[in-house]
Specification:
The protein has about 180 residues and is mostly helical. Helix content is about 65%, strand content about 5%. The protein has a domain of about 120 residues. The protein has a two-stranded antiparallel ribbon. Helix 4 packs antiparallel against helix 8. It is elongated. It starts with a helix and ends with a strand.
Length: about 180
């Protein structure tokens, strides 16, 4: 009997903890993701602007139509602009920023076509170099952009208000639903 009550108490406590953690992630996850990606773009772009980026040579080689210093300033400024844009949640600004992010991220994949010897060890597609791994991480940034982009049609959230959004596909609810 005591064992059963203890088990029920533990399961109930874990369920409440899980509910609280999921609620926190739901309330703040996308905002924190947006800020984290903003920090990455501000940092990496800033390093290019001050000519301190470990990826400088890769940028220069893939943006070959510009003089080296101009290539770094161009890409660095583009990345800093993306970072600044991600700090704000205005739907129009986010749309423009995400467009720039996806163009920039897609452009980084040029390394696989223009410089495969720099991206893969001995030409083996299963063995990326550090530069190749650096480029592959852009898949995560693209996916993060998709998640962030999913918010541009949501009503803005404030700390005390309940935002309204369409029910998710497959939900038993019809129309609109309230979310804390």
């Amino acid at each position: 009997m005591v064992s059963s009550n203890l088990r029920t108490l533990c399961v109930s406590w874990l369920d409440r903890l899980d509910h609280a953690l999921v609620g926190f992630m739901s309330a703040y996850g996308i905002r924190l993701l947006r800020w984290a990606v903003a920090i990455v773009y501000l940092w990496f772009g800033g390093l290019k602007l001050i000519n301190a980026s470990p990826a400088a040579e890769l940028v220069v080689q893939t943006v070959f139509w510009l003089p080296p210093r101009l290539a770094l300033v161009f890409i660095g400024s583009w990345e800093v602009l993306i970072g600044i844009g991600l700090l704000f949640a205005h739907p129009l600004l986010l749309r423009v920023t995400l467009f720039l992010l996806w163009l920039q991220a897609a452009g980084t994949f040029q390394v696989f076509f223009l410089l495969p010897q720099e991206a893969f060890q001995g030409g083996n597609l299963l063995l990326p170099t550090l530069e190749g791994q650096y480029t592959f991480k852009n898949l995560v940034l693209i996916a993060a952009g998709l998640v962030i982009g999913s918010t541009v049609r949501r009503a803005p959230r404030s700390l005390g208000n309940v935002a309204r959004e369409p029910a998710r596909a497959g939900s038993s609810q019809q129309g609109w639903r309230d979310e804390p």
